[in-house]
């Protein structure tokens, strides 16, 4: 505000100088000039007073502006502090949320990495198992490519099924027939049907070529060879293991692979029909179990029929024991009846004795006119004291 006053004073001084210069230039008498100067001086005085008043107002305005400026500054500072506080709180909340989210993300990431490591471990184990299985498959292929080894696998599987399903006296392995042929197994049943031969070998080479064929021509040729091999094998089983009067009129061809059994029934119905016609029945491990279950039921029925005479003899003895028991119960009943009659007669005699005793008691004595019972009562009754005093 002092800068504004200085500007105003300077402006008034300049105005006064300009007025004096104009008065001198205009000339005139000294009285007129003096009057003019007096007027100018008065005007300047009034202007000075006005300037002083204006300075006072300006000072008041300056003080008001200073107060307002201070208030505005204080308000701005308070708002700035409030905004700063709010921003700090918001930043703290955002920082906290970001930290929590980062913590949760870190936990989830850690859990995911842990699961990933576990799954990788499982995958590694699976890969190891696959590698071992591949080696086993290669070894199995080597075994299956060897006829003797393949026959040993089928023989072992068939023997396990037979041992688990039948009693020891109901079968025999590597049984030699009268024609010199040796069956892998015979199931011993009484005639009929007799011995049932089981063959555990089947032609696998053509089937393996059929499965592994690279083109249609090779597949067709291998399929034809497999069909012919199975038909020949069925014929050989019928010729070697079905002997009239010695064995049953049927034999069993055991196929140790369910897939081969399914392919035979699905793709080669003529082969299955040829087996039925020659009475050679093709079975898989599952159907072999069903067949052995039937054989076990037949053996159980045979054992029951063998023991039927024993049961009949025991039933006869039981009937005779029941007859003897019935006779003895009749004798006991007759004894009870005789005892009852004797008891009734004793009761009749007792009643007669009681009646006769009562009659004797009722006979009156001579001279008294009283019965012995009344006399006894009179004798038993006490006499009054005055009777003895008289």
Characterization of this structure:
This protein has helices spanning 2-26, 30-145, 147-165, 205-211, 216-241, 258-267, 269-277, 285-306, 308-361, 372-380, 385-389; strands spanning 171-176, 182-187, 195-199, 247-254, 280-283. With 390 residues, it is α/β, with parallel strands linked by helices. Among the domains are: 2-106; 148-305. A hairpin with a 5-residue loop joins strand 1 (171-176) and strand 2. Helix 3 packs across helix 8 (285-306) and helix 4 (205-211) runs antiparallel to helix 5 (216-241). The longest helix has 116 residues, at 30-145. The radius of gyration is 70 Å and the shape is elongated. Mean pLDDT is 77; it is low at 377-390.
Based on the model shown, name its key terms.
alpha/beta; 7% strand; disordered C terminus; 390 residues; elongated; 5-stranded mixed sheet
Mean pLDDT: 77
Share of helix, binned: over 70%
Rg over CA atoms, rounded to whole Å, is 70 Å
Molecular shape:
elongated
Compressed to H and E, one letter per element, the order equals HHHEEEHHEHHEHHHH
Largest beta sheet: what is the strand line-up?
1-2-3-4-5
Q: Number of DSSP strands? A: 5
Percentage of residues in DSSP E strands? 5-15%
Provide a count of the helices. Answer: 11
Derived from helix and strand composition plus strand pairing, the structural class reads alpha/beta
Terminal-residue CA separation: 172 Å
Query: In this structure, how is the largest beta sheet organized?
Result: 5 strands, mixed
Low-confidence stretches: 377-390
């Amino acid at each position: 505000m002092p800068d504004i006053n200085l500007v105003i004073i300077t402006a008034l001084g300049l105005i006064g100088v300009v007025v004096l210069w104009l008065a001198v230039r205009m000339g005139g008498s000294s009285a007129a000039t003096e009057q003019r100067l007096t007027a100018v001086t008065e005007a300047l005085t009034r202007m000075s007073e006005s300037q002083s008043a204006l300075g006072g107002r300006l000072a008041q305005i300056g003080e008001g502006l200073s107060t307002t400026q201070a208030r505005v500054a204080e308000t701005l500072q308070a708002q700035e502090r409030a905004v700063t506080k709010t921003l700090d709180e918001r930043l703290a909340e955002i920082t906290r949320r970001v930290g929590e989210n980062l913590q949760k993300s870190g936990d989830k990431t850690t859990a995911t990495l842990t699961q990933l490591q576990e799954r990788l471990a499982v995958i590694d184990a699976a890969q190891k198992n696959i590698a071992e299985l591949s080696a086993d498959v290669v070894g199995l292929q080597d075994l299956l490519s060897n006829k003797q080894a393949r026959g040993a696998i089928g023989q072992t599987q068939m023997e396990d099924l037979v041992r688990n399903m039948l009693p020891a006296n109901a079968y025999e392995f590597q049984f030699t027939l009268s024609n010199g042929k040796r069956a892998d197994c015979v199931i011993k049943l009484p005639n009929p049907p007799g011995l049932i031969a089981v063959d555990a070998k089947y032609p696998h080479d053509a089937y393996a070529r059929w499965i592994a064929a690279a083109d249609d021509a090779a597949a067709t040729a291998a399929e034809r060879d497999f069909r012919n091999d199975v038909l020949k094998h069925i014929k050989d089983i019928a010729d070697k293991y079905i002997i009239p009067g010695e064995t049953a009129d049927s034999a069993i061809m055991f196929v140790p692979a369910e897939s081969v059994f399914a392919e035979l029934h699905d793709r080669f119905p003529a082969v299955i029909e040829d087996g039925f016609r020659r009475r050679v029945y093709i079975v898989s491990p599952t159907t072999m179990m069903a067949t052995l279950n039937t054989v076990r039921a037949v053996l159980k029925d045979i054992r029951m029929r063998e023991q039927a005479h024993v049961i009949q003899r025991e039933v006869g003895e039981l009937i005779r024991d029941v007859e003897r028991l019935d006779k003895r119960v009749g004798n006991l009943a007759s004894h009870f009846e005789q005892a009852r009659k004797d008891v009734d007669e004793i009761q009749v005699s007792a009643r007669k004795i009681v009646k006769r005793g009562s009659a004797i008691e009722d006979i009156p004595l001579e001279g008294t006119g009283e019965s012995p019972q009344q006399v006894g009562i009179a004798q038993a009754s006490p006499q009054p004291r005055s009777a003895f005093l008289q």
